[in-house]
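[SOLVED] Predicted holo structure with pyridoxal-5'-phosphate

Edit: marking solved, answer below. Original request kept for reference. I posted the sequence and ligand SMILES and asked for the 3D complex as structure tokens.
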Amino acid sequence: MSKFLNKKYEKLEAYTPGEQPKDKKYIKLNTNESPYPPAPNVIEAITKGEVEDLRLYPDPECTELKKALANVFGVEKKNIFVSNGSDDILNFAFMAFSENGVVFPEISYGFYKVFAELHGIDYEAIPLQSDFSINIEDYYNKGKMVVIANPNAPTGLLLSLTEIEKILKENKENVVLIDEAYIDFGGVSSASLARKYDNLLVVQTFSKSRSLAGGRLGFAIANEKIIEDLEKIKYSTNPYSINRLSLIAGYEAVKALDYYNENCDKIIKAREYAKAELKKLGFYVTDSFANFVFAKHESLSGEHIYEKLREKGILVRHFGNEKICDFNRITIGTMEETEKLIIALDEILRGKVEK
Ligand SMILES: *Cc1c(COP(=O)(O)O)cnc(C)c1O
């Protein structure tokens, strides 16, 4: 820390991204990326001519991408916000809508707490129930912005649309932000409720199901007034936050619905296989609807499993938080990668680890 840092940031604890090691080639099951490349039309659209055009600023309104998204979600362009990764949208939403504070589940996406602290927002982290499920009544009439990841991370547990609707009804005076980073892996998006509820803000990303984590692209669906507020913050920070190539990639990705649906189906199949095999190996596994599983072994510690897998060239995500330190969050890759994971775990459990 330099002596120049504003005091208000002295105690700020930044978000810790999953590791991206370069020392050897790992099977990367630690950051919930897609194992599949972007759709062929996405790759073809990034031409030499488009790269040459990088001398020009991108369209700050993201017109074509917004129109394409509006079309898919059955809303209008004015109901869509696009930004540099959905983290950017979360950040803007915390700035815009939590004057009276914010509530979110205690075990959830780590960035919520970071954004609250970054902006000095009063926050309440509501404990999950003992099976990690969310008790929706805990979120009624809080008088604060409500933020819920659905499915939740790292548990993968899903709330139904009926439950989301109840939360919306019980928080009419505050924004309810539903972070749908993992919704394409078996959930139903609450985007369809955006016409009916002017307090709903649905946030999605191109990083997980759409294979564009490196492109940094996220979007939101909401009432046009909420979108206007987000635009105001975007235009007050960085109107050109999405680069030209990502705009093109995103536009093409929206058109490749079939390709991405097929990938999601493959990942869901591998996830269900992983759940079943992990249980056979003595793991407790939550009923995840995301592209990861959250698993704890009956006798080995989470950290031990994390380390032994790392030695075997498989990276998973282990969290230090004592409430979940027995668990690992394991991204679902291809079926082949999943099979290798299960074999590696089987070997670890049999104590056959090469030293
Ligand atoms: C991955 C993730 C995001 C962030 O996605 P980006 O669009 O890559 O910034 C947001 N919320 C949750 C719950 C996530 O897991």
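OP edit: Residues 256 and 341 are 30 Å apart (CA to CA). Thanks to everyone who chimed in.
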